[in-house]
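Good morning C.,

I know you're traveling, so I'll keep this short. The sequence:
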Amino acid sequence: MFLSRHDEPKFNVGSENETAVTEFILEGFSGLDQRLQLLLSLVFLLIYLTTVMGNATIIFLVYADRRLQTPMYFFIGNLAFLEIWFTSSTSIKLVVILGSGRRTISLSSCFAQSSSYFALGCTELILLVVMSFDRCVAICQPLHYAAIMKPQLCIHLVVATWVTGFTLFSYRLAILSQLTFCGSNEIHHFFCVSLENSRFVALLNTILYPFLNPFIYSLRNKAVTLALNEAIARTRAQLFP
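The tokens, ready to paste straight into the viewer:
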């Protein structure tokens, strides 16, 4: 996303001898056929909605079912909440790009997307470390697990995780907002990133993994499956008495 000053300027003039970028053009997947882009937009939209619904279901079950109100599921519920925001930071714009062909993004939106992507990714990494610590205590210290992983400690760990992520978000956004970008406004990716990784690798990270995580961490679990089936049965009984 840091652009060369030697590229041909295509933006508004900020001063007499300087041109400044006011928006970027996301060129990711622009070479694909228009019909294929429309098809991909529908596929990605379906995946995104399924991801949101799956993670929202996990959050609801953890909150509503007493059997799932344990440290492990408390962390999983927070991971589900985090995944909704993480995939939303890139998926919504990608669907709009592929579906409508509007590839422009304002400077401030680009800064916000880039900062939120890295901050949420860092937050997820820290949360996974916390979840690993929880499972390590459960396996290595089973008799002391309840005494160690008290609700107060779990809350403190999650709060520290989110505070770290938002601190990074604010710090990165503050730095980016003070920079002036000149030259080409084309970004050869489908969202605002200083990275040259493959677009298909980025798709795995931003769309596929959040889609699979509810199944990996929760929906294959017997306790979660039982709670889900009971919730569905209660809903059916209320709708069709």
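Safe travels,
E.
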